[in-house]
């Protein structure tokens, strides 16, 4: 019976996404159904986390076909925490969309596409075989293609072509890698794959396939040098869609790197993990350079996504429990705080009508609540104690020192200062200095727009101040990643 809770987070958005199609012109009903379904999904996701904590890894065999032959969903603590975080983020983004996305986009199946996007994201987190990881990636990408072009502005159409082309290439590489993997091992079930790769001691051909998968996931996670598509593609759609993409899509790539290189290809870390480490470090450096170089609100925050991806992915190479806990904690924190920042940035852009810092100033006088909320999000992003960013970075530094990754610790601390500088630059330029707005702009109402960001900030503050309550769950997730036998035994029932 408890295994049925694994599939519920997938079923709700799928059914709701289909139902919403039939109410295309009834926007009010679409909003009510969307928000009720997301509250329900969040509640089930929270219950799933508690179930996994009390009963261990849960599995759901579709059609009662036993693994490794049937399709299986697996909810370990790592996947469950990410499902819960993604549910909270999506709920807040949809609440923000009520006041900002516009009726034209709402009538063009915006809420349905968000629900289908969630199906892909949840499925990628919960699937127990690598072919269905590809399938759920495609479900997520098809929905994101629709969301990035919805509204049909010239910038959206231009950037969507680049976005679609990059993802089509990465999907083709993904299929090739999966085909080679099946040809060599004869299975696609991740638990069974882990056993067979261990028995063969991961020969060169499997290491090569592993690195091909890393390229695919690195492209989706926007790691160096495969991040080139991100700044343009993520700056084109409306703020609420940027918030959804920034919080969820690159994190699915990060999750896939963690899953494959902790469960499958972990036998030759001196080669695979070393390359991942170098790529992650370069990603942090490039992201930091981009974040301080731009004077555009969206571009600064987008380059901060790249920095965070590098920080989290480096966690794969840290062989200590503290390192894994830090990476997981930082991943959850980053999903929450990035969504909050993009929604707050959306409010700023709504008031000023521009993304250019030089054209902003003096907003603190008329919008003090917005200003101080942005300030709290900024210091949380930079990892100032006791907010959530600090806990993750503290654990990562501890893990880095324990595994003697001193270069990473130095880069992480230096990047924290640059992240703080880049975000404070937005705060100072937007909210202090001489007002640059006309009296017409100063009358822009933020009624109903700030409370989704307030919810996300409250979660961020809880992750920081309530770390003692959250750490046991993160510790369970880290333990499963460090010991693949927990996952294997739960799936294959050995």
Automatic annotation (TrEMBL):
GO molecular function annotations of the record: antiporter activity; NADH dehydrogenase (ubiquinone) activity
NADH:quinone oxidoreductase/Mrp antiporter transmembrane domain boundaries: 129-416
Main location: membrane
Location of the protein in the cell: Cell membrane; Membrane
Name of one Pfam family that matches: Proton_antipo_M
Membrane topology: Multi-pass membrane protein
GO biological-process terms attached to the record: ATP synthesis coupled electron transport
Keywords for this protein: Antiport, Cell membrane, Membrane, Transmembrane, Transmembrane helix, Transport
InterPro entries reported in the protein's UniProt record: CPA3_Na-H_Antiporter_D (IPR050586), NADH_UbQ_OxRdtase (IPR003918), ND/Mrp_TM (IPR001750)
Entry GO terms, CC: plasma membrane
Domain of life of the native organism: Bacteria
Family: Belongs to the CPA3 antiporters (TC 2.A.63) subunit D family.
Listed PANTHER family: NA(+)_H(+) ANTIPORTER SUBUNIT D1, NADH DEHYDROGENASE
Name the UniProt record assigns to this protein: Na(+)/H(+) antiporter subunit D
Gene label: mrpD
């Amino acid at each position: 019976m408890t295994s049925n809770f694994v599939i519920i987070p997938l079923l709700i958005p799928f059914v709701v996404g289909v139902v919403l199609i039939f109410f295309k012109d009834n926007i009010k009903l679409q909003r009510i159904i969307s928000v009720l379904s997301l509250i329900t999904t969040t509640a089930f996701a929270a219950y799933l986390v508690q179930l996994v904590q009390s009963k261990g890894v849960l599995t759901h065999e579709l059609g009662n076909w036993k693994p490794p032959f049937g399709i299986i969903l697996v909810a370990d603590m790592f996947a469950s925490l990410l499902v819960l975080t993604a549910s909270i983020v999506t709920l807040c983004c949809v609440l923000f969309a009520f006041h900002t996305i516009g009726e034209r986009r709402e009538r063009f199946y915006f809420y349905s596409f968000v629900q289908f996007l969630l199906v892909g994201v949840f499925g990628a987190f919960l699937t127990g075989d690598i072919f269905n990881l590809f399938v759920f990636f495609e479900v997520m990408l098809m929905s994101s293609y629709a969301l990035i072009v919805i509204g049909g502005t010239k910038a959206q159409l231009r950037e969507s072509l680049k976005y679609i082309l990059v993802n089509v290439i990465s999907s083709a590489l993904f299929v090739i890698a999966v085909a080679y993997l099946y040809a060599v091992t004869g299975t696609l079930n991740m638990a069974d794959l882990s056993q067979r790769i261990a028995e063969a001691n991961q020969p060169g051909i499997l290491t090569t396939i592993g690195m091909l998968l890393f390229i695919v996931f690195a492209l989706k996670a926007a790691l160096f040098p495969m991040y080139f598509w991100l700044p343009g593609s993520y700056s084109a759609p409306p703020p609420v869609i940027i918030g959804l993409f920034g919080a969820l899509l690159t994190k699915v790539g990060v999750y896939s790197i963690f899953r494959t290189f902790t469960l499958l290809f972990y036998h030759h870390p001196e080669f695979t993990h070393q390359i991942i480490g170098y790529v992650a470090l370069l990603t942090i450096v490039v992201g930091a350079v981009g974040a301080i170089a731009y004077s555009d609100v969206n571009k600064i925050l987008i380059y901060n996504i790249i920095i965070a991806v590098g920080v989290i992915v480096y966690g794969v190479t840290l062989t200590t429990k503290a390192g894994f806990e830090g990476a997981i904690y930082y991943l959850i924190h980053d999903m929450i705080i990035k969504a909050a920042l993009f929604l707050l940035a959306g409010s700023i852009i709504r008031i000023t009508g521009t993304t250019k810092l030089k054209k902003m100033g003096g907003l603190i006088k008329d919008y003090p609540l917005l200003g101080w909320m942005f300030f709290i999000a900024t210091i949380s992003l930079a990892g100032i104690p006791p907010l959530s960013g600090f806990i993750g970075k503290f654990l990562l530094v501890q893990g880095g020192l324990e595994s003697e990754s001193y270069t990473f610790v130095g880069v992480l601390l230096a990047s924290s200062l640059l992240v703080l500088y880049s975000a404070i630059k937005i705060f100072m330029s937007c909210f202090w200095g001489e007002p640059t707005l006309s009296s017409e702009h100063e009358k822009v109402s933020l009624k109903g727009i700030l409370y989704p960001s307030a919810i996300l900030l409250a979660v961020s503050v809880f992750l920081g101040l309530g770390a003692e309550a959250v750490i046991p769950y993160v510790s369970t997730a880290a333990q499963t990643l460090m010991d693949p036998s927990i996952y294997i035994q739960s799936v294959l029932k050995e």
